[in-house]
Amino acid sequence: MKKRVFISFAIEDKNLRDFLVGQAKNENSPFEFTDMSVKEPWDSEWKTRCRARIKGCDGLLAIVTKNTKKAIGQLWEIQCAKDESVPRKGIWGNDDHPATLPDELAGVSVVNWTWTNIENWINSL
After folding, report:
1. 68, exposed or middle or buried, with CB in 10 Å at 0-12, 13-18, 19+?
2. Total count of domains within the chain
3. How far is CA 61 from the centre of its chain?
4. Type and span of the H or E element at 16
5. More confident residue, 28 or 111
6. What's the DSSP call for residue 96?
């Protein structure tokens, strides 16, 4: 049975999310993905639906870039996963790592984006 993973990303990094989704479509993928891409402002209804989706996942994988620190929705998703005791992992979206991570990522391991790193984490869930 495939694990279900919530992908959290800054909207500016949508192309990275699309790339990860492409990898996940590989027949050897150990997970199914879900996310809550936002095209309208966040409201309480979005947060309620997003929380339910995160709670239904085995883990949350955050794509971390310099955009993450200002990504209000992504930061809320990461904090929500923590509040709901959903395991979290970060992957670097590129080689241009931010100097500091937002508070919501405190205690979260952020690793290089390799299929092996992603698969090992998912298998540990």
Report:
1. buried
2. 1
3. 3
4. helix 14-24
5. 111
6. -
d(CA 62, CA 93): 9
Q: Are 58 and 5 in contact (CB under 8 A)?
A: yes
CATH code (residue 99): 3.40.50.450
Tell me the residue range of the domain where 13 lies: 3-124
- Asked whether the whole model's pTM tops 0.70, one would answer yes
Q: What angle do CA 5, 106, 77 make, to 5 degrees?
A: 40
**112: exposed, middle or buried (Cβ count in 10 Å: 0-12, 13-18, 19+):** exposed
| Average pLDDT estimate for 52-74 | 95
Strand, helix or coil at 98? coil
Residue 6 makes CB contacts below 8 A (sequence gap 6+) with: 33, 34, 35, 53, 54, 57, 59, 60, 61, 77, 81, 86
